[in-house]
Write a structure and sequence with these properties.
CATH architecture of the domain at 3-69 and 102-112 in chain A: 2-Layer Sandwich
Number of strands of chain A: 6
Bound molecules: guanosine-5'-triphosphate, magnesium ion, zinc ion
Shape of chain A: elongated
Distance between the termini of chain A: 29 Å
Strand content of chain B: 15-25%
Helix content of chain A: 25-40%
CATH class of chain B: Alpha Beta
CATH topology of chain B: Rossmann fold
Structural class of chain A: alpha+beta
Distance between the termini of chain B: 63 Å
Strand order of the largest sheet of chain B: 4-3-5-2-6-7-8
Oligomer: heterodimer
Radius of gyration of chain B: 18 Å
Number of domains of chain B: 1
Largest interface: A-B, 27 and 22 residues
Strand order of the largest sheet of chain A: 2-1-6
CATH superfamily of chain B: P-loop containing nucleotide triphosphate hydrolases
Helix content of chain B: 40-55%
Strand content of chain A: 25-35%
Order of helices and strands of chain A: HEHEEEHEE
CATH topology of the domain at 3-69 and 102-112 in chain A: hypothetical protein PF0899 fold
Number of helices of chain B: 9
CATH class of the domain at 3-69 and 102-112 in chain A: Alpha Beta
Order of helices and strands of chain B: EHEHEHEHEHEHHEHEH
Shape of chain B: globular
Number of helices of chain A: 3
CATH architecture of chain B: 3-Layer(aba) Sandwich
Largest sheet of chain B: 7 strands, parallel
């Protein structure tokens, strides 16, 4: 249950921000989740519902997951390509010297209060 | 109507853990304690391998073990029975991995005086533990033959954070279509600096090479 663990981290971070900003109730948390981050957004929102409703600060708060597409970069031909579609091998030149530019994020973007 | 206010955060949920881990690593360096984080799928042979390695090394360096489990202490009991080395059991309370803070708490439960090497047996899982830096000096993983040689392709993050990959259960190679050369290639694709060591924890084959590798890593790190 990876997502439940992640939810506990989100709650911890949101609580900290709420305290710093003297917020009594949060109505929405917006996450940015990379396409290849290993997080399943549906599970994440399910776990969120269960855990968030146990906190006064977060009761009823919505969790929105915005998906960031995974994009890789090829070090040989200096071009970008879709990671999910092509994997590790560059579709432009066939090189394996490629790395992920983004798509691995698990970030709290913002909260609505 | 209540006014809706948006507070921008824009922060990775791994950021705090990465900071905790870096701090823990620094503190352990000052104490001269090498923390090794051992990861694998459930049942690939972590406890059996540890038992063997500890028995080869326990007269040469001081070792302590932390066993992370969702909720049991069979591994800690087994390590004590078979090596005489005290280990502590960390319960992750349902979490699928250990983070730096849990690791720190576990270390506080150990007597680190004079200890050279602490081995952390992480929760059996190839996904979550790879995402959380525990503060370890290095990450080792065990892949067992029945799991297949294509695991490095399926779990890229795990294989990119480990610089020591042990291939266990080589006694059953004749019964599986596990391709060792192919596996080595896939591992190096994920991490060109990784060392691959085939062993059989059951009979002890190859375990000596693993023990020597760990010993030399600990020594090299202490002299850094
Ligand atoms: N055939 C064979 N079996 C092995 C070998 N090493 C371990 N086993 C068996 O594999 C099973 C699991 O071994 P453990 O050492 O408990 O594995 P583990 O990774 O610690 O397991 P968890 O802590 O439950 O994730 C046991 O039945 C071991 O006897 C090996 O080299 N060959
Ligand atoms: Mg075990
Ligand atoms: Zn290219």
């Amino acid at each position: 249950m990876h997502e439940l663990g992640i939810v506990f981290y989100i709650i911890r971070d949101v609580k900290k921000v709420a305290e710093e900003n003297q917020v009594a109730h949060v109505s929405k948390v917006v996450m940015e989740i990379g396409e290849v981050s290993t997080i399943v957004p549906d599970y994440l929102t399910d776990c969120w519902r269960w855990a968030a409703d146990k906190e006064d600060l977060l009761r009823g708060a919505e969790l929105e997951c915005r998906i960031i597409p995974a994009v890789s970069f090829c070090g040989d031909c200096q071009q970008e390509f879709g990671t999910v579609e092509h994997g590790k091998i560059c579709p432009h030149c066939g090189s394996g010297n490629t790395w992920l530019l983004h798509g691995n994020e698990v970030e709290i973007k913002e909260i609505e209060v | 109507m209540d006014e809706v206010k948006i507070i921008e955060i824009k922060k990775s949920i791994f950021a705090d853990n990465d900071e905790d881990a870096a701090l823990l690593r620094k503190e352990l360096k000052q104490k001269g304690v090498y923390l090794l984080n051992l990861m694998s799928s459930p049942g690939s042979g972590k406890t059996t391998t540890l038992t063997r390695v500890i028995n080869l090394l326990k007269d040469r360096i001081r070792i302590a073990v932390m066993e992370a489990d969702i909720d049991s202490d069979v591994d800690a009991v087994k390590i004590l029975q078979e090596t005489g080395i005290a280990s502590i059991q960390l319960h992750t309370g349902g979490m699928c991995h250990l983070d730096a803070e849990m690791t720190r708490q576990g270390l506080m439960g150990l007597d680190l005086d004079g200890v050279d090497l602490v081995i952390l047996e992480n929760v059996g899982n190839l996904v979550c533990p790879a995402e959380f830096d525990t503060g370890a000096v290095s990450n080792m993983m065990i892949l067992s033959v029945p799991e297949g040689h294509d695991k490095p392709l399926k779990y890229p993050l795990m294989f990119s954070v480990c610089d020591l990959v042990v291939i266990n259960k080589i006694d059953v190679l004749p019964y599986f279509d596990f391709d060792m050369d192919q596996c080595r290639e896939y591992v190096l694709m994920r991490n060109p600096k990784a060392r691959v060591l085939p062993i059989c924890a059951k009979t002890g084959e190859g375990v000596e090479a693993l023990a020597e590798e760990l010993l030399s890593r600990v020594k090299a790190w202490k002299e850094e």
